[in-house]
Amino acid sequence: MEEREPSDRADVCVVGAGPAGALVASRLANDGHDVVVLEAGPRFDFESRQERMERAIRPGGRGDVWEMGGERDAYTSGGDRFYPLNVTRVKGVGGSTLHWQGMVMRFHPTDFDGGHENADPAWPISYEDLRPYYAEVERAMGVAGDADNPFAPSRENPYPMPGFPPSYSDSLFAEACESLGIATHSVPNARNSEGYDGRGQCVGYGTCQPVCPSGAKYDASVHARDAEEAGARIVDRVPVQRLETDGEGRVTAAVYATPDGTEHRQTAREFVLAAGGVEIPRLLLLSRSEAHPNGLANSSGLVGRYFMEHLFAGAGGTLDRETRQNHVGFITSETHQFYDDPGQAVEHAGTGETVVESTGESFSPIKLEFLNYAGPSPVEIALDGETWGDDLLADLRSAYGTHIAMGGLVGQPPRKENRVTLDTSRTDDHGNPVPDIRWSLGSRVKRSLRRANEIQVAILRELGAEIGGTVGPEHTGPAYHHMGTTRMGTDPAESVVTPTLRTHDLTNLSVASSSAFVTAGSLNPTLTIGALALKCADHVGQRLSSRARGSPRRRATGGLPRRRPRAGTAAPRGPVPRLSSGRTRP
Q1: How many C-beta atoms surround the C-beta of residue 30 within 10 A?
Q2: pLDDT tens, residue order, the chain (586 aa)
């Protein structure tokens, strides 16, 4: 319990040790600031990952791989549509990157400027504002990619590592797409295609979701370690209960509970919330007081509002030839041709026949994926079957190896009625109201999902597949990308945080999270989360430095220390990425 006592002095208190919190802590600690990170979940021993993988592939074992569930993680879903919050989130050092797929794309300029048929609000920052941070996060995480995507924003440098080769099923899709005039390209992945940063290259376990046993896939525990090596302190299993303020526009303390229920107050000069798009608004609402009767940072009434998600679109079937399904556990090829122009027609390149009609309707951007893990695996077929011996072998030969499928993401436009609020009728293990997610789909999302399905079916038919079904507007599910609940803006009446990620209402409270997103786009959000986290850290560091001029530095700065490779991993082939801003405190 002594290890969970508050630090006597802290420049910064970060709430959450997922990708945003770990990057913020690493940046600020390496710039010489005293950092304390409060994490609700536990530390997970790296050595336990093999056992977690084995647990994941057992029948019914996937759900508890990262120990989610129970009273601690209780929630309700009071909206028109049920939201399965606990299916994929992780509380612990590393956060949801412990089980993410690892796809990392930069948002397009149109995602920031409202350029999708001018149907979306614009962000108060541009792609150019985040461009240097995107490059830095790619180096820090270690991204493998090839600059072959004609629809992606321009790049200033190559990816840190070469991309992964396309899978066998990718080659089948590429041939069909070429016939239809659809461009395919590689996918940038935050997993090592070669030894990088003290971590070995991907060895192909194929269980990327929910666990990478080798550590080749990036997760935020990497930068949590970096932060600690630079002097930060990370305290696990201490959920923050509320934030206290001084009545003069500043947060004074984060009140957290230890495993035995004891409450402590961690004071700091600056506070950064990095607990994700559900727990951040919940904490702000839980921190209501006489001075802030509607919760902290909520003078606009928008804390928790504009909850957004990415919805899944899919189509699958079987071929009369081998597809080598489940040989690769992550996506290696996609097409973003329908991202900025989802209403374009699809015409057969050989015959000129229009396969999918053009339309002038308003759509969300559409990202289409070619899935390497379509259909059941041989293990699943064997475990679920009731046959043995030669009969089982015959079943495997007839049911495995010919499946093929496409996926895709469609982003929700911001809708004020979609929100995270508190359910006072139900409490967690510390007696706090649980989050209530009120979620529904609008007509534009449903229209975009239908459009994605049309294109997917056209590609599968060109392949000669027997269509087995689609996942579209009526049966879709979320990608578990929580966004928008503390939106960014310049007008305090219409937003929660400023373009510097500081809250409008409190001068020392910042938010580093997808909760600051103004729109959702349709690309995986983690790279943008990381870019915003580093931007947030720089602004926090500037404020700390401006207030601390003349104070002595307590330790040397100069970037992340070189990490010693863990046993069994390849040594880094180049310089270890550093996350110091390059500035030192006077």
Answers
A1: 29
A2: 458 999 998 999 999 999 999 999 999 999 999 999 999 999 999 999 888 888 887 766 555 788 888 999 999 999 889 999 998 899 999 999 999 999 999 999 999 998 755 567 999 999 999 999 999 999 999 999 999 999 999 999 999 999 999 999 999 999 999 999 999 999 999 999 999 999 999 998 888 888 999 999 999 999 999 999 999 999 999 999 999 999 889 999 999 999 999 999 999 999 999 999 999 999 999 999 999 999 999 999 999 999 999 999 999 999 999 888 888 889 999 999 999 999 999 999 888 999 999 998 999 999 999 999 888 777 778 877 889 999 999 888 888 889 999 999 999 999 999 999 999 999 999 999 999 999 999 999 999 999 999 999 999 999 999 999 999 998 999 999 999 999 999 999 999 999 999 999 999 999 999 999 999 999 999 999 999 999 999 999 999 998 765 454 443 333 333 333 333 333 333 344 557 776 443 3
CATH number attached to the domain at 2-58+67-547: 3.50.50.60
C-alpha span between 211 and 368 (Å, rounded): 24
CA–CA separation, 203 and 568 (whole Å) = 12
DSSP secondary structure string for all residues of 67-111: ---SGGG--B--SSB---GGGT---STTGGGGS---B--PPPHHH
CA distance 55 to 57: 6
State the DSSP H helix or E strand holding residue 241, giving kind and residue range, or none if neither: strand 240-245
Distance between CA 404 and CA 317 in Å, rounded? Answer: 6
How many residues in the chain?
586
Kind and range of the H or E run holding 242: strand 240-245
In sequence order, what are the residues at sequence separation of 6 or more whose Cβ sits closer than 8 angstroms to the Cβ of residue 237?
Answer: 4, 39, 40, 41, 42, 258, 259
Question: Domain map of the chain by residue range?
Answer: 2-58+67-547
Q: Which of 514, 474, 438, 476 is nearest to 311 (CA)?
A: 476
CB distance 228 to 560 below 8 Å: no
> Which residues neighbour 254 within 8 Å (Cβ) at sequence distance 6 or greater?
13, 15, 38, 240, 243, 244, 265, 266, 268, 271
The torsion region of residue 501 among left (phi > 0), alpha (psi -120 to 50) and beta comes to left
With b meaning 16 or more CB within 10 Å and e meaning fewer, what string describes 69-101? eeebbbbbbebeeebebbebbbbbbbbbbbbbb
Would you state the torsion angle of the CA atoms of residues 215, 220, 222, 228, taken in this order, to the nearest 10 degrees? -150
Cα atoms in the Cβ-side hemisphere of radius 13 Å centred on 454: 20
Q: Which long-range contacts (CB under 8 A, 24 or more apart) does 241-248 make?
A: 241/286, 241/430, 241/432, 242/283, 242/286, 242/287, 243/271, 243/283, 243/284, 243/287, 243/296, 243/509, 244/287, 244/289, 245/287, 245/289, 245/291, 245/292, 245/296, 245/506, 247/291
